[in-house]
Specification:
The chain has a single domain, classed as Beta Polymerase, domain 2 (2-Layer Sandwich), CATH 3.30.460. It is built from five helices and five strands. Helix 3 crosses helix 5. Pfam families: GrpB (PF04229).
Length: 174
C-alpha cells in the first residue's frame, strides 16, 4: 500500500518569515546575478492565517532556461527539480522529501504574468483580513475532510482562489 503525506494545516508561525529570509539568502548565493527578485508567497506569507508548514518562494530570474543549469547544485542543497510541473515557463523545486517538505520554490522569468498573480493574491489577503480568515478556515476544513488527498484539498480551494485572483486583479486596475 502506498503511503501518502498527510495534509496538515497549522496556525501561523512567526518563524516562517525568518525561514524564508534564510533560504532566500542561500538561493541568492546559488543563482547570483540571474535573480531579479525573491518573494515570499502563499499562506505562510500572510500573517495570522493557517497554512501547510511549507514556505512558498517565488524567484524572478532574467532568463528561465538558465535555471536548468543549477539543478545539481540545488539537489546538493536538498531540492528536487520538478521541471515545469504543470505551469508552462516555470521551474518548480521542492526541498525535502514527500514527508519532510520544507520549501516550494517557483521560478519564473521576469515579466511572467504568474509573478503578479501570486503577489496580488498575497497582498489582497493581507489587506482583507476577513477574506484571509475565511480562506484559513476553508483550508482547515479541507485538510480535515481530505487528510491524505492533496488533490482534493487543492480542488477544494480552487474556486476561492479564482475569486480572490479576480478581485485582486480588479483592485489593481482601479
Amino acid at each position: 500500500m502506498e503511503t501518502k503525506r498527510k495534509v496538515e494545516v497549522v496556525c501561523h508561525q512567526s518563524e516562517w518569515k525568518q525561514q524564508f529570509d534564510h533560504e532566500a539568502n542561500i538561493l541568492r548565493e546559488v543563482f547570483g546575478n540571474l535573480i531579479s527578485d525573491i518573494h515570499h508567497i502563499g499562506s505562510t506569507a500572510i500573517p495570522g492565517i493557517k497554512a501547510k508548514p511549507i514556505i512558498d518562494m517565488l524567484i524572478e530570474v532574467k532568463e528561465i532556461d538558465e535555471v536548468d543549469h543549477f539543478n545539481y547544485k540545488l539537489y546538493q542543497l536538498g531540492y528536487i527539480s520538478k521541471g515545469e510541473n504543470g505551469i508552462v515557463n516555470r521551474r518548480f523545486f521542492i526541498k525535502g522529501d514527500e514527508f519532510n517538505r520544507t520549501h516550494h520554490v517557483h521560478i519564473f522569468q521576469t515579466g511572467n504574468k504568474e509573478i503578479d498573480r501570486h503577489i496580488r493574491f498575497r497582498d489582497y489577503l493581507i489587506k482583507h483580513p476577513d477574506e484571509a480568515e475565511f480562506y484559513s478556515n476553508l483550508k482547515e476544513e479541507l485538510a480535515k475532510k481530505y487528510p491524505y488527498d492533496i488533490e482534493e484539498y487543492i480542488k477544494g480551494k480552487d474556486q476561492f482562489i479564482k475569486v480572490i485572483d479576480q478581485k485582486a486583479a480588479k483592485k489593481n486596475l482601479d
